[in-house]
Inverse folding.
């Protein structure tokens, strides 16, 4: 095997990365995590959300093949890219309607916002790095390489879906349009009542989800097969937005702000896989660094006499 | 000669008495399926649902073979309680004792599950039945059927029964039962028709009702035809396999 400078890079880079991690275990500096995004602009009165192109308009050429492959990966992430998915989640679980639905973190409202400058840490992150974050946190797995077939196909799919969206313009419908924290706050016990009545049917009483054969149909909401403590969905405010707009499936917008917050709090008051950014094995340290100012979340918080954020394997 | 014909002859008059005893001890699901329950009104299931439990398309009689036990038991209970209306099934469900209903559900659940050959992801055409089944109509808040009923509509858990393996007649009838019929205003030559309320009100959390109400008649036909056309492979259900969406 000839070692070209480029190949040398691909061989050595992981070693450097590992070293960097050992010296600075806090984080991979290139990683774009899933910390709170700014609020999306509201829709003007009577204005519709952006309409992504129709599936039938994907061209029948090499580009179209790549876009379709991206869509397949988006819907069947665990089945088609198992080496990168550490739990039972697929992209489409959080991005409803194949990443097309407004207020369900649609791809068309995300793609054109990258590369993104983060003032907080004076970093610039690319769309590919953002997707790597999805694999590490939401799918509790391993980030595919930036030039991997998986990320190339997913990028092509997001690019195609964003046809016609202005570059760099925050679109209404971006993110999950989170409801405001109710005046009286949220209540985990009340959330359990909502959960048992409305959610347990599909996601299971123990949040374990449901499968057909090897394929996860209803994703696990906590435990070892769910998103980890670093995923954006672990924030109660973010989960409240997702739930209120999309759950129960087909009956979105039926839960009140209060119910959405309560049930989101109940779901996110359960153990899940550890935050991969864990600092020196210390939950408090990790909370200070990554969770204290990241929306409303229970990482490192004592609930019912037990400190959350222990992680489960 | 099938034993189903010989046995009742041999047992003669004592058969119903025997079955009464059986039902009291431990109801025999298979016997009820083949010969009916202790009450004469509890007719043999197989006369409508088929000797193999796969239903009869022409009459709109559904497949019961391989459906989840809890789902079947719930349907029988719902027929009895009137949450699911059917002039045919309600008297039968009411005639079955609780033990008999449980035994029938258990026996049908033990029969082979419907299976659909796994393959590459389908590329449905917009506006087709396959599109509704695999993509839904999210602009109307209608999820794709397979999102809850599982890839290829093979069913998920106890609450979401298989759609594969059912006939178009049955699926159409259920969607209409959830929807009911809206009132028709009278014209110059036609009388107004009163609305028919839904005759099926037993979907958990009302998940099916709004979906059925928001589908057009053409969509109901198309999506029913799609699932009816998936067929049922003779290969056993392989739970170790992924099913692509």
């Amino acid at each position: 095997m000839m070692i070209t400078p480029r190949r040398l890079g691909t061989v050595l880079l992981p070693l450097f990365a590992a070293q960097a991690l050992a010296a600075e275990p806090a984080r991979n500096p290139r990683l774009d995590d899933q910390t709170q995004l700014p609020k999306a602009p509201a829709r003007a009165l009577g204005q519709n959300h952006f309409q992504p192109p129709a599936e039938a308009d994907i061209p029948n050429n090499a580009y179209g093949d790549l876009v379709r492959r991206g869509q397949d990966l988006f819907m069947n992430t665990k089945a088609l890219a198992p080496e990168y998915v550490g739990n039972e989640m697929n992209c489409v679980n959080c991005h409803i309607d194949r990443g097309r639905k407004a207020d369900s973190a649609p791809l068309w409202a995300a793609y054109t916002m990258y590369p993104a400058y983060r003032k907080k840490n004076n970093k610039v992150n690319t769309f590919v790095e953002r997707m790597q974050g999805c694999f590490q946190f939401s799918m509790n797995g391993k980030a595919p390489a930036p030039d991997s077939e998986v990320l190339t196909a997913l990028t092509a799919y997001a690019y195609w879906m964003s046809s016609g969206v202005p570059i760099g313009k925050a679109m209404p419908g971006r993110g999950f349009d989170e409801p405001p924290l109710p005046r009286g706050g949220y209540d985990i016990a009340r959330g359990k009542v909502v959960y048992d009545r409305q959610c347990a049917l599909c996601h299971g009483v123990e949040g374990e989800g449901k499968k057909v054969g090897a394929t996860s149909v209803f994703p696990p909401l906590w435990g070892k097969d769910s998103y980890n403590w670093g995923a954006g969905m672990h924030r109660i405010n973010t989960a409240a937005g997702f739930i209120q707009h999309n759950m129960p499936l087909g009956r979105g917008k039926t839960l009140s702000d209060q119910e959405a917050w309560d049930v989101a709090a109940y779901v996110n008051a359960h153990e899940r896989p550890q935050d991969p950014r864990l600092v020196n094995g210390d939950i408090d340290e990790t909370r200070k660094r990554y969770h204290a100012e990241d929306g409303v979340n229970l990482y490192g918080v004592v609930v019912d006499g037990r400190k959350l954020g222990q992680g489960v394997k | 000669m099938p034993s189903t014909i010989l046995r009742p002859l041999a047992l003669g008059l004592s058969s119903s008495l025997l079955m009464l005893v059986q039902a009291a001890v431990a109801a025999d699901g298979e016997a009820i399926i083949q010969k009916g329950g202790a009450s004469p009104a509890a007719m043999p299931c197989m006369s409508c649902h088929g000797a193999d439990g796969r239903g009869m398309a022409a009459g709109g009689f559904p497949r019961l073979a391989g459906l989840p036990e809890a789902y079947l038991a719930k349907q029988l209970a719902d027929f009895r309680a009137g949450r699911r209306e059917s002039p045919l099934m309600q008297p039968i469900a009411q005639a079955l004792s609780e033990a008999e209903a449980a035994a029938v559900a258990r026996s049908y659940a033990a029969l082979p599950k419907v299976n659909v050959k796994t393959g590459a992801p389908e590329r449905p055409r917009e506006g087709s039945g396959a599109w509704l089944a695999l993509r839904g109509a999210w602009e109307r808040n209608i999820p794709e059927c397979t999102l809850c009923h599982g890839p290829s509509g093979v069913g998920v858990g106890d609450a979401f029964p298989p759609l594969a393996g059912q006939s178009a007649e049955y699926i159409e009838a259920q969607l209409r039962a959830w929807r009911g019929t809206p009132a028709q205003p009278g014209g110059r030559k036609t009388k107004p028709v009163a609305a028919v309320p839904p005759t099926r009100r037993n979907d958990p959390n009302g998940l099916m009702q709004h979906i059925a109400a928001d589908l057009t008649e053409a969509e109901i036909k198309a999506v029913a035809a799609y699932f009816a056309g998936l067929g049922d492979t003779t290969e056993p259900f392989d739970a170790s396999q992924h099913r692509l969406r």
